[in-house]
Design brief:
With 246 residues, the chain is an alpha/beta fold. Helix content is 30%, strand content 20%. The chain contains nine helices and 13 strands. A nine-stranded mixed beta sheet has the order 4-3-2-1-5-10-11-12-13, sandwiched between helices. A two-stranded antiparallel ribbon has the order 6-7. A two-stranded antiparallel sheet has the order 8-9. A hairpin with a 6-residue loop joins strand 3 and strand 4. Helix 1 crosses helix 2 and helix 2 crosses helix 8. It is globular, with a radius of gyration of 17 Å.
Length: 246
């Protein structure tokens, strides 16, 4: 912790910032901290965001109040049309942004079966996509993913304009840092470090060489108003601290 702000609360703000500038789109956060972050963005600097309950309802400031109905076919149309910014999880992620949520090991005989490919290819090729990794480790940040679900920059480029036209990997938020792909070869780099974290810790927890600037900023601290919203309005039960313990 730095002062009275927990690591989880820095992560919430970092996730919220991923939706800054998006306007009136569907925010699709996957995970406790991204969900709190999306709601924080909607209550502060991005009031146009719409969130789902994970099924078919559209909700706004108050998740108990249903603002609209989103049949699955309409949801798929939004996914294909780009009016959506998803923050997915990643069981594996490589330097190019290729993501795996399907299996670990040889896909013909995997050591572990996970979620499956699900909508990751369509998400990454049609919408802005970010990732949330609550445990930054070499098990997640790997040299090569065992199976490609979400499409990274190298594979999108190899597939040509049909894949790159709407392909946008925006940022990766972890319990240690915020990363993005703002390098000449569009590979991962550290954008900011959470307070109390060193660049060496992030390098040690990453399974490939990582671009790290000499002078890195700290992830921005939540304002007093944002802290009140997080603690009293959005997550009074403190579920964020279970996902990212201080």
């Amino acid at each position: 912790m730095t002062g009275q702000v927990s690591r989880a609360e820095y992560c919430v703000v970092a996730c919220a910032e991923a939706w800054r500038g998006d306007g009136e789109i569907l925010a699709a956060p996957m995970g406790v901290v991204p969900r709190i972050g999306a709601r924080l963005a909607g209550l502060t600097f991005e009031p146009g965001l719409l969130l789902t309950d994970g099924e078919a309802m559209l909700v706004g400031d108050d998740p108990e109040v249903v603002e609209g109905w989103l049949p699955y076919r309409r949801h798929l149309a939004l996914v294909a049309g780009g009016k959506r910014h998803v923050m997915m999880g990643a069981s594996q992620l490589d330097r190019h942004g290729n993501q795996n949520i399907s299996c670990v090991g040889d896909w013909k005989r995997p050591r572990r079966q996970l979620l499956g490919v699900r909508g990751a290819p369509v998400n990454t090729l049609n919408n802005p996509t970010s990732y949330w990794v609550p445990r930054h480790s070499r098990r997640v940040f790997v040299e090569r993913v065992d199976m490609v679900c979400g499409v990274g920059h190298d594979r999108a480029a190899a597939a040509g304009p049909s894949a790159t036209r709407f392909h946008e990997l925006r940022r990766v938020v972890t319990d240690l840092a915020v990363l993005d792909f703002a390098t000449p070869d569009r590979t991962l780099r550290v954008r900011s470090l959470h307070p109390g974290v060193t660049a060496g810790q992030v390098r040690e927890a990453t399974g490939f060489p990582l671009t790290v600037a000499d002078a890195l900023p700290r992830t921005r601290e939540p304002s007093a108003a944002e802290l009140r919203l997080i603690r009293e309005v959005i997550d009074p039960e403190g579920l964020r601290e279970r996902e990212v313990p201080s």
